[in-house]
Design goal:
The protein is built from nine helices and no strands. It is an all-alpha fold. The protein has one domain (5-189). The longest helix is centred in the last third of the chain and has 22 residues, at 121-142.
């Protein structure tokens, strides 16, 4: 499912770093943030392992069905939890995309692991459209607003005392989700 080895290793590093940061976010005092961080850590590490270049390691045949089971369970959990929050629908789509990619790898492990598999073009296109829109919206949310920047400069001493811990900062969580969305796009492009 991977392109050139250098871009594959960059994707592995991005996804592993994102997964590690999400593990740190699990120490948050906010329970909803902890739960979301756990789901995102699973996704980050799963994507990192899936992105390992085929020239470095060819996994045994049982790995892809195991991926489908693990991320199928994550999708069911996200579906159950989605009753309480819209963000969990994104976790559902992400987990379903991982199941889809694992199924493609199971059906065509050698072709899929090298430079493109036999995915369903309509489903792949739909996932690409979703993650493209998600990345664009997530990136726009990270842009600072002009009014907020001016007011932050005036009250920086007060803001420094009330600043959340670095693991609880919402902009870092958004950046984490953005990087995983970009990683998912990169992986889907190779199907």
């Amino acid at each position: 499912m991977h392109g050139p080895a250098s871009s594959g290793w960059l994707l592995v590093a991005l996804c592993a770093a994102t997964g590690a940061y999400c593990l740190l976010r699990m120490r948050s005092s906010d329970e909803t943030q902890r739960r979301a961080a756990g789901d995102e850590a699973l996704m980050g590490f799963g994507m990192a392992v899936m992105a390992v270049p085929g020239s470095a390691f060819t996994p045994p045949a049982w790995v892809w069905p195991a991926y489908a089971v693990v991320f199928g369970g994550a999708a069911l959990r996200a579906l159950w939890v989605a009753r309480s929050g819209r963000h969990h629908l994104h976790h559902l789509v992400g987990a379903a995309a991982m199941v889809y990619m694992a199924a493609v790898m199971t059906a065509s492990p050698t072709a899929g692991h090298a430079h493109g598999g036999s995915g369903v073009p309509l489903l792949t296109g739909g996932l690409l459209a979703y993650f493209t829109a998600y990345v664009l919206v997530s990136g726009a949310r990270l842009l600072p607003a002009a009014g907020i920047a001016g007011s932050a400069a005036r009250g920086s001493a007060t803001a420094a005392r009330r600043a959340p811990a670095w693991g609880d900062r919402p902009e870092l969580a958004r950046a984490c989700r953005l990087s995983m969305g970009i990683g998912m796009l990169a992986m889907l492009l190779t199907i």
